[in-house]
Amino acid sequence: MNLPNKITVSRVCLIPIFLIIMSVPFHWGTIHVLGANIPVTHLVGTIIFLVASLTDWIDGHFARKLNLVTNFGKFLDPLADKLLVSTAFILLVGLHLASAWIVIIIISREFAVTGLRLILANEGEVVAANMLGKIKTWTQMVAIILLLLHNFPFAGLHFPLDQIMLWISLVFTVWSGIDYFYLNRKVFANSK
């Protein structure tokens, strides 16, 4: 297994650690800063999520720089993103920090695109994420970080950037999903 793929696998390994920190009722206190009340577990969870998110950029950087792009990496990298983001969004719904219906749409899109990727893989095609998909992932990760941090540092300003980013990520999620299905519509033409 090459270096970029090992980095991607490390992202997958961080998911259960993030899940445990965020869902086990540790009582480490709360930090009050700039109008935000951030439980320490959320701060620690955010740091883990941020490290895991950064591995997305790092593995892609090394894969391109060292010419180590593989089909395994093309498949695992977006899957690792989906697992990380879905875990975070489900936790945010449980914490009443994100609307369930928005998260359902986001996760439904992720399942639909993963299903399409599997159909394409069965036909011998492995499709890497395009720029719209990367923007979608970036907006989702920024929204999650702001939500985990209870809108820090914007809470004191009464500017709901966390919710605005959640809506922006929803728009890019739907848009990129439609784009992905449109670009790969030949799969449905061939299934008749």
TrEMBL record:
NCBIfam families: pgsA (TIGR00560). The chain crosses the membrane at residues 12-31, 43-62, 83-107, 138-157, 164-183. Keywords: Cell membrane, Lipid biosynthesis, Lipid metabolism, Membrane, Phospholipid biosynthesis, Phospholipid metabolism, Transferase, Transmembrane, Transmembrane helix. Belongs to the CDP-alcohol phosphatidyltransferase class-I family. The lineage of its organism: Bacteria, Bacillati, Bacillota, Bacilli, Bacillales. This is CDP-diacylglycerol--glycerol-3-phosphate 3-phosphatidyltransferase. This protein catalyzes the committed step to the synthesis of the acidic phospholipids. Pathway: Lipid metabolism; Phospholipid metabolism; phosphatidylglycerol biosynthesis; phosphatidylglycerol from CDP-diacylglycerol: step 1/2. It is found in: Cell membrane. It is a multi-pass membrane protein. It comes from the Bacteria. GO terms for molecular function: CDP-diacylglycerol-glycerol-3-phosphate 3-phosphatidyltransferase activity. The keyword Lipid biosynthesis applies. InterPro entries: CDP-alcohol_PTase-I (IPR050324), CDP-OH_P_trans (IPR000462), CDP-OH_PTrfase_TM_dom (IPR043130), CDP_ALCOHOL_P_TRANSF_CS (IPR048254), Phosphatidylglycerol_P_synth (IPR004570). Its EC number is 2.7.8.5. GO terms for cellular component: plasma membrane. It holds the Pfam family CDP-OH_P_transf. It catalyses: a CDP-1,2-diacyl-sn-glycerol + sn-glycerol 3-phosphate = a 1,2-diacyl-sn-glycero-3-phospho-(1'-sn-glycero-3'-phosphate) + CMP + H(+). The gene is pgsA. GO terms for biological process: phosphatidylglycerol biosynthetic process. Its main location: membrane.
